[in-house]
Amino acid sequence: MGRPGSPPRTPGVRAIALLLGVCGLGVGAAMGAVHVARLHPPLLAHAAAQGASVRVEATVTGDPRVHLPASDGGRPTAPSWSVPARLSGIVVRGRTYSVRVPALLRGDEVRGLRYGSRISLSGRAQESFSPEAHSVTLRVLGPVHVRSPPGPVAQATTRVRDAFRKACAGLPADAGALLLGLAVGDESTLPPDLDAAMVRAGLAHLTAVSGSNTSLVVAIAMAAVAGLGLGWRVRVGTCLVVLSAYVMLVRPQPSVLRAAAMGVVALVALSAGGRRRGPPALLASALVLLLALPQFALSLGFALSFAATAGLLVVGPPIAERLGTWPISAWLPEPVRAALAVAAAAHLATLPLAILMGNGASLVALPANVLVTPLVPFATVLGLAAALVAPVAPTPAAVLATIASPATAAIAWVARTSAGLPFGVVDVPAGPVGALGSAAVLALVAAAAATGWRPWRDRRIRLVLVVSLALGLVLNHSRDARWPPPDWVVLACDVGQGDGLLIRAPGADEALLVDAGPDPDRITGCLRDAGVRRLAVLVTHFHADHIDGLAAVLGSWPVSVVLTTPVPEPAEGASEVVDGARAAGVPLRPVRAGDRIDVSGVALDILWPARRMDQSPANNGSVVALAQVASSGGTIRALLTGDIEPEAQSVLMARPAPRAHVVKVPHHGSRYQVPQFARWSGALIALIGVGRDNDYGHPSQSTLLQYREAGARIGRTDEQGDLAVLPVPGGLALVTRR
User: Fold this and answer.
1) What are phi and psi of 318, to 5 degrees?
2) The predicted structure's pLDDT at residue 238
3) Which residue from 93, 379, 398, 600 has the fewest beta carbons nearer than 10 Å?
4) pLDDT at 657
5) Do 387 and 227 contact (CB within 8 A), yes or no?
6) Which H or E element spans position 229?
7) 3-class SS of residue 76
8) pTM of the model
9) Torsions phi, psi of 34, nearest 5?
10) Which one, of 316, 131, 287, 362, lies nearest residue 215 by Cα?
11) How many Cβ atoms are within 10 Å of 10's Cβ, its own excluded?
């Protein structure tokens, strides 16, 4: 109404529009402030920053989940348990707060908790590592007291999930795990390698209950009610009841609530004319969600759901129309064209965000999603049916699960095959630059399609586009094949949530390996890429995330000696290392502070352990060494710290500073650090071996800040892949694989 050149219909309409905009911003800011005040009382935030002990009352909002540090096929050791909860009351240093804080409780004491229980406990506050889902993490101290058991609805949904898990127990691992994820969002049994393949193939949304799951449930309910000839209001009410029950079944976590809202919007809007009514409905639902849960404004998951739904509403219909007119696709059946349009719209809309998150530009996500489109509804419907009948009829439930298992097995095969293709994901610069660049390219393509400009009709432009794409793929592959840089001296391997670090011996295809990581394939792949033919030394301690790749390394490379800590904890890990070295015929030597090993031109000064620590003896018993290696730029000193924690760090800091150039940050960058340790190391480059989306909060923001303030350049394997340190004129360079 207020555009230039048109008379306003009412006086002062521009002023009214401006006033409404300002009022909207004011209301939004006020709502956000109210939520922040409830979610983050200043004393609670301070307690989390200081790691203080607090007393809380909470309601369990999910099922306990076990976290096994061992890789697939490895030895599971030291499992940890966690469960999501909503804090309602908290006592911090004598002051009581009434709060509504989403939190994550960690500790062995939570393994027996049931969804819906009201509990009280003491815990140590830790900083959050998942702002989308949790405001604070509590390490449980002592017993957990159940103040009231779960309600009847929570008990019923828990009974359904437990019975369904038993019904799927006899299925093949991949098929059963995917069926649990598709039907009820239970990812507890999903193998880590399949999970990684699903992410790389663009299929991870299938098991993390998404809008497609909720839309399918609502569509089934709508069709069933419509078949009875009931009115529109009854249909809507029935669908809301069914959706609420489904949300309770899969657990009302933030991601599920977000998916439910977006899935309903997409279904209703598409059924009522998506391009006309869809965008207003989507914007209204997003506004309500942001006012109710302002933390979604910082959630990439919310942004992905919003973008995917917007793509379905705005881009999906025109793509479907064009597919029906193009000769290359007009011959396809209508359901196939519709599936292709839906997958293409969601993929294109979320591509900039995927690049922002460092996932690259996937070339396999679109065909993979199209291939599994007919399988997902079949498996989901049968899985839900099996889950609902499992508590009262276990045998029919097992039969239904068995019938659905070929579909989920096929989905797993598509995921693994797609993830293994050599050009499946194009390496695009992560972060804002890559995201904005990809968004600009998509905007240009959309503008060309909207204005009728058809540059691809020109034969020369088509030739340039094809040659550019082929050249980009070849350069991307060749750059990856050239890894690592020829002059590397220190190489941190991306082995997931664990450590694997190489120090190159001068003038030979020989290296020293510090830890073998949790994944045999990753550590052996890193050694092959680095061109290592012989290991002069292998140094490790006995935790699974440092030794589960040891047997594969000892079986494939000649190793002169294995150096270990004299602290044999955990005992199972120590036995595994001893047995593995004996089976490979490699001598094993415990080392202590003061030892010095000179091998192949590399000097190792052992700084720790000097004694066994009472607190966290396995971590604090890690071998700490200062490696000195000659290079073209002079001698490079690397401080290797294992998983030592503040107790061992404090003892080490009584020694003269090592003046290291490179430091392997202790314990994957956990928050358990002496703040001055980063500056004491003197390192210019800090390397952190850490897995993406790990459950431990590694690396901690406080630790990252300590190393930044100490002047170190930080490299992280979760975000940057393999990390190489090499000499350059005037200093050292940190080169990342991604």
Assistant:
1) -65, -35
2) 80
3) 93
4) 87
5) no
6) none
7) coil
8) 0.60
9) -60, -45
10) 316
11) 7
Give me the half-sphere count of Cα atoms (radius 13 Å) on the Cβ side of residue 48. 22
CB contact set of 565 (below 8 Å; sequence gap of 6+):
541, 542, 590, 591, 609, 621, 622, 623
What tokens were used for 297? 């404004």
- In 40-172, which residue ranges form alpha helices assigned H by DSSP? 42-50, 152-167
β-bridge mates for residue 685, sequence order: 662, 713
pLDDT confidence of residue 508: 67
Q: Are 641 and 624 in contact (CB under 8 A)?
A: yes
Q: Which helix (H) or strand (E) holds 67?
A: strand 65-67
Q: Give me the half-sphere count of Cα atoms (radius 13 Å) on the Cβ side of residue 52.
A: 16
Mean pLDDT of 521-550: 89
Domains, the chain, with CATH or none: 40-150 (2.40.50.140), 156-435 (no CATH), 490-736 (3.60.15.10)
Name 140's bridge partners: 123
Cβ 71 vs Cβ 101: under 8 Å:
no
pLDDT tens across 361-377, in order?
Answer: 777 887 888 888 788 88
Residues, the chain: 738
Side chain identity at residue 508, one-letter code: A
Q: For residues 361 and 348, give the distance between their C-alpha atoms in angstroms, rounded to a whole number.
A: 10
502, 689 Cβ separation under 8 angstroms: no
**Residue 132, both tokens:** 């989308």
Q: Average of pLDDT values for 157-173?
A: 89
Q: How do residues 321-370 score in pLDDT, each as one tens digit?
A: 877 777 777 777 777 777 778 778 888 888 888 777 766 677 788 788 88
Residue with tokens 């030592």: 644
